[in-house]
Amino acid sequence: MKFVLSSLVVNLPNAVTGEALTAQQKFQNVLKQAMLAEELGFDAYGVGERHGAPFLSSSPPVILGAIAARTSRIRLLTTVTVLSVLDPVRVAEDYATLDHLSGGRLELIIGKGNDPRHYPLFGITEEGQWESLSERYALLKRLWNEENVTWQGRYRPSLDNVTTQPRPLQQPIPVWHGSASSTISTELAAKYGEPIFSSNTFHPQAKYKTLIDHYRERWAYYGRDPKDAVVGAGAGSLYLANTSEEAVRRFRPYYDAFTSTAAAQHNQSPFRDLEDNIKNGPVLVGSADFVIEKILNYHEAYGHQVLSISVDGLTEAEQREQMERFASDVAPVLRREIPSTVWESKPAASQQEGILSVHQA
Known about the structure:
Oligomer: single chain
Order of helices and strands: EHEHEHEHHEEEHEHEEHHHEHEHH
Number of helices: 13
Number of domains: 1
Shape: globular
Structural class: alpha/beta
CATH topology: TIM Barrel
């Protein structure tokens, strides 16, 4: 199994200490997270996209660009890019640029997002989000894969003989499809032969398993080998301690603070409280052994090769503690137990450097 540390750049007063970070301090915290994630051996760092408080993640390519300048190995993911409201020309340009600046470490996870506040900001109705996503993604693929594109659609002005610059470094830039609530996203992924990333954050396992099963069924429908279908999954927050009782006690204030926000309540999570989520939901709170067993249980249901976790909202010291505990006590076991073919090859720039080294020798 491979591991992603991700952030929505949630900036709430700390639920335990009451400390409130400025926006500048929070951005610096995210940069430190990403650098530590690389140091600890995480495979990727992800930044989501939101357009309203308490999130500061309205511009993932800018944040990931800053991370790219401070790291050298770790993959850079968007978790997710809300393509249903974005101009594909701008997305093509911004992320191709980031692909070059990161040395070919970029991977896009696209989706329609789960925060309705972004629709009026960008002139899209919630009812039209799926059609918008499908149209915009078809155009984005053409812009990255073709030159002299002529196109006409519903959600942006027509294009005549357009070649976006720069061209991506990776050919192609890998794209995942974020999956949280609808078979429309899993259908789109299967149609294009691309991996999915299940949100697996706010609801019981069965809801997400249904969507993953649909993805695999449609993958086979399009004539593809089932073993080639790749799945990633989130897990919500992480909190490890020497005992599960200690982890629950320490994490409870953070859980209660975030679930009381309007953004969290929009998702209408069915869990009554933290204990209910631990028992019946995806949150990873407990001893290392407990968390390992829970992840293995979810893997049995999903068959996912990549896991995304978050330490958003904790103090900086606790963030480091949780990342270090996960890297030392949980990740090695799961790497042994769950094979993963994802990210086995080096980024494009590293491959080119290797070729140059051979030629120079």
